[in-house]
Amino acid sequence: MTLHDDGSAGKTGPGMISRYNEVERHVVRSMMKSLAAGAALLALGACAQGAEPAIGAGPLAPQPELGARAKPLVSADGLRFRDLNRDGVLNPYEDWRLSAEQRAGDLVTHMTVAEKVGTLMHSTLPGAGGVLGRADGYDLEALGDLVRDKHVTSFITRLTLAPADLAEQNNAVQELAETSRLGIPLTISTDPRSHFQYVLGAAESGTGTTQWPELLGFAALRDPELVRRFGDIARKEYRAVGIHMALSPQLDLATEPRWGRTSGTFGSDAALTSVLGGAYVAGLQGGADGLEENGVATVIKHWVGYGAEPEGFDAHNYYGRFARPGSALGMHVAAFEGALEAEAAGLMPAYPILAGATLEGEPIEEVSPGFSRQLLTDVLRKRLGYEGIVLSDWAITRDCNERCRAPTAEAPQRPQDISTAWGVENLTVRERYVKGLQAGLDQFGGVDEVAPLIAAVDEGEITESRLDESVRRVLLPKFQLGLFENPYVDPQRASAVIATPEDLALAAQVQREAQVLLQDSGGTLPFGPGRKVWLFGMAPEAAQAAGLAVVDDPAQADFAIVRAETASEMLHPNHFFGSRYKEGRLDFRDGDPAYEALKQASAHVPTALAIFLDRPAILTGVQDKAAVILGNFGASDAAVLDVLLGKAAARGTLPFELPRSMEAVERQDPGLPDDSVDPLYPRGAGIVSR
């Protein structure tokens, strides 16, 4: 179901986004049919392989493999079960013949208030000596305090180890969890780790996994079946190392060109984002109709309006705590349609205060969506019928101290100073927990302060029945994924199934095809093999491997290649995330190293600018200097070279417009897509080889 800008519900159409023409709507309808067919084939294949889950299948279901390292087994009816509470009898929550819903309902009745409150925390697996969980291994002593004392059973992992090593580490934490009173297995989540960009606290760097373009690259190809295949490969890789939940995809509309998280989105088109979001969820979760036993619970984000950040300042930071989607909020909601229809297991609200936003003409409370009953209960739950977990983004209950609000070079913001309690800064931590639950949250991300919420329950500010509602939602995927039978993985198998030759070949192909050829003056391409090249921003070894001779002086070259990223500025160096996300201008200027290299090279030889479009670059000042402009959304040097040398074809088109000037950017509405005056390249631009 789609919520239109006018508040009505129905199919995608001109009532939602009047800017879409009939051709675009036809393309989207075709994509939806393709996705449905692909999902049907996937389901048939799963049945043929005997992949139907045993959970809920009745007494004739086959005996599943059980993983027991700290608790005994119990037998009943000639079958074996894990005795997770060590009472010597088979409890319904231990009985894999029952449905996930029955088992979750039973487990709640065994839990204390403290155990329920712990279940509503989604913390970070502590690293041994690392920052924000980054390390060479987990700190099991610190984790023991969280699991046994605070009863936390959901954690994000930030380890980036080889597959077998990561599997071993995740097995160790599951063994620790098995020793807890009820033996509840851990749900281990991750930020995206299959792409090129890495920002601590927002994306991870995978080790040994296949590597793909950012989501913008998939949007450039407009192929939902390809997105589903990517999701299926990521699902296989995550589960092989013991990861069960993906804190992705970003379904935010990239409507403010300067926003630093643009690369994690599917671009500026709400209808395309909806289709590709649904494909992503279907691939990760194992099917288009909800979470399968061999799937990865997918947490779509960020609900809603996050991409409408004025000046592109991000809401991780105090100075970026406002977004202004205005009356276009319904368009931002519509981008989630496909993922909601695919029954995403989880959803993460956005950080920023929606300032001046309206929906159906009704003003939205000026708090971040994690505290908005209008957005979480009235729209998401009641109107759209969403039944999954609502997991807050990180640190929304924490206080914003002086280093959070106004850090200095002498006192910069540290990880412990991070807070995103926007719109509720005047509330206490306890009051924020209560308001979040009353709004419709089920879990609180990045925190494990259980005492304030326990006190709120003890004082009657939150009822235990309200806790039970969210606890059941959090427990349900653990049962659906089979973690109560066996949370352990085989490290040797992890090494064997991750980054197979077939998967690596597909990822490499997508890196090449997802590039966008914007300019080829005079038919400059392809550059010939065996020639001399001058390089900036590219590894000489890559060019040499492609058969080129690398020279130190562009005057001695036959052609030149300059690799660059979209221009940016460091405007807030003392803020933790302000120093990590791109901010500021999008145009190249004198003194920029890549721009100086482009001027130097183009004075002598035909030069290709290969630019990573992590944000919509302004290329007006480079058009007359670069013979070739080739955009990418995450590609290796080899992938870029193959396109420039004619060994592969760029088939992408722009997933957002490229503005003509910073003046045009400053005049556009941050809540509306592709609305700058006279863009240099419109959305959909690209010279595509057929």
Would you mind describing this structure in some detail?
- This protein is of the alpha/beta class.
- It folds into 2 domains: 2-8 and 97-497, Alpha-Beta Barrel (TIM Barrel); 515-650 and 657-667, Glycoside hydrolase family 3 C-terminal domain (Rossmann fold, 3-Layer(aba) Sandwich).
- 32% of the residues lie in helices and 12% in strands.
- It contains 21 helices and 22 strands.
- The strands form 6 sheets. Strands 5-6-7-8-9-11-15-16 form an 8-stranded parallel barrel.
- Strand 13 (358-359) and strand 14 form a beta hairpin.
- Helix 7 (224-240) packs parallel to helix 8 (270-285).
- It is globular, with a radius of gyration of 25 Å.
What is the number of strand segments? 22
Order of strands side by side in the largest beta sheet? 5-6-7-8-9-11-15-16
The major beta sheet can be summarized as: 8 strands, parallel, barrel
Number of helices: 21
C-alpha Rg (nearest Å):
25 Å
- The share of residues in extended strands comes to 5-15%
Please state the second-level CATH architecture of the largest domain. Answer: Alpha-Beta Barrel
Q: How many discrete structural domains?
A: 2
- Identify the quaternary structure here: single chain
What is the first-to-last residue Cα distance?
A: 35 Å
Broad CATH class of the largest domain: Alpha Beta
What is the fold named in CATH at topology level of the largest domain? TIM Barrel
Overall pLDDT confidence: 91
Shape field: globular
CATH superfamily of the largest domain: Glycoside hydrolase, family 3, N-terminal domain
Structural class, by secondary structure, is: alpha/beta
